[in-house]
Amino acid sequence: MRASELSKKISRRLAEEIAVGAISCGQHVAAQQLADKYGVSRTPVREALETLEEHGILVRRVNRGYFVPDALPESLSDLLDRQTAEITDDYQSLADDWLVNKLPSEVTEHLLRQTYGWTKAKAGELLARAAREGWAERKEGYGWRLLPVAKTPEAFDEIYRFRMAIEPAAVLEPSFKLDRAVLSEQRRIQEGMLKMDFSAVPAETLLANGALFHEEVIKLSGNPFFLMALQRVNRMRRLMEYRAEVNHDRLVEQCTEHLEILTLLEDGNLVDASYRMRQHLSGALKRKSPIAWNWAAESQAEAAS
C-alpha cells in the first residue's frame, strides 16, 4: 500500500478516535506512539498528522508536536463525512454476503477477486479490515477463514442471554478488583460520546466503544475466562450490529446506563452494579433485536429471490 493511501486511513482512524473521545481535547498526539500503535513507520503517520492539522483538527506547537484543540472544530464532522463517502461499498458487500451465506467459510483472495472483480490489493485490504473487526482470520496455510457470526434471531438472543449470565456474575467474583484508572478512562469515553455528533462517526466505532466498556469491566473480575468468553461473543454479534441503523436516543440511553454502572462500581456497590448490569443487557436485547433482524430478514429475502 502506498504511503499516501496508508496515511489517509490513519488520518481517518485518528479523526474517528478524536470524535468519540478516545483521544481527548488538549491531548498530545505523538507520531512515534501512533506508529507503534498502528504497526507502521513514522512517515505515513506524519502525513496523517499534517492532513489533520490542515483541517484544524490538530494544532502544531513549536518544539512540542501535535495536540488536539481544546474545542473540536466543525470541520471534524465535515472531514468524517467526506472520508466516509470515499469508502466504497465493497466492504459492506463482503460482509452482507457472509451474513446471508453467499460465501463459504473459507475463502482466498483469488476467489474474492474473481467474485467481485477486485484487485489483489483491494481483496487483501478488505480481508485485513474484516480481521480487525473480528470476523475473519488468516489461516495458517493459504487463505482466510470467515468466523461464525450471529446470523439468526435465535443466535442473537442467545448471545445476549449468555452475556446476562456472565457479566453480572463477573462483578461478584471474589477476585474482582476495582481499578480507578480504568473506570476513570471509561467514564471519560462515555461522557465524551454523550457530547458527540453520532451521525458523524462510523457505526463500528460507536459499537467498539460500547464493547470496550463491557470488556474493561469484566476484565476487573481477575478471571480471564470471563473476558475470553465475552470477547468471542462480541465478535460474533459485531457484524450484525454494524448493519443496524444508528439510533441517537438508543445510544444516549446506552451511554447513560454505562455511566450509572460506573458510578456504582466507583462507590464500591458491587451487588447493585451487578444487578444494574443485568438490567442494562436485558434492555439492550429488547432494543436491538427488532432493528437488527428487520435488516437481516430483508437481506435474506433478497438473497433467496
Question: Quick gist of this model?
Answer:
68% of the residues lie in helices and 5% in strands.
What does this structure look like?
The chain is mainly α and 305 residues long. The chain has 13 helices and six strands. The protein has helices spanning 3-19, 31-38, 42-54, 75-86, 90-99, 109-116, 120-132, 153-171, 180-195, 203-219, 224-243, 248-266, 270-304; strands at residues 28-29, 59-61, 65-67, 106-107, 136-138, 144-146. It has a three-stranded antiparallel sheet. It has a three-stranded antiparallel sheet with strand order 4-6-5. Helix 6 (109-116) crosses helix 7 (120-132) and helix 12 (248-266) runs antiparallel to helix 13 (270-304).
Give the SSE map.
Elements: H1 3-19, E1 28-29, H2 31-38, H3 42-54, E2 59-61, E3 65-67, H4 75-86, H5 90-99, E4 106-107, H6 109-116, H7 120-132, E5 136-138, E6 144-146, H8 153-171, H9 180-195, H10 203-219, H11 224-243, H12 248-266, H13 270-304
Antiparallel strand pairs: 1-3, 2-3, 4-6, 5-6
Helix pairs in contact: 1-3, 1-4, 2-3, 6-7, 8-11, 8-13, 9-10, 9-12, 10-11, 12-13
Over the alpha carbons, how many angstroms does the gyration radius reach? 20 Å
The 3D shape can be described as globular
Q: Could you tell me the strand content as a percent range? A: 5-15%
- Sheet of most strands: 3 strands, antiparallel
Total DSSP helices: 13
State the strand order across the main sheet.
1-3-2
**What is the count of β-strands?**
6
Give the overall pLDDT as a whole number. 84
Distance between the termini: 38 Å
User: How helical, in percent, are the residues?
Assistant: 55-70%
Indicate the structural class: mainly alpha
Any low-confidence stretches, pLDDT <50, length ≥5? none
Order of helices and strands: HEHHEEHHEHHEEHHHHHH
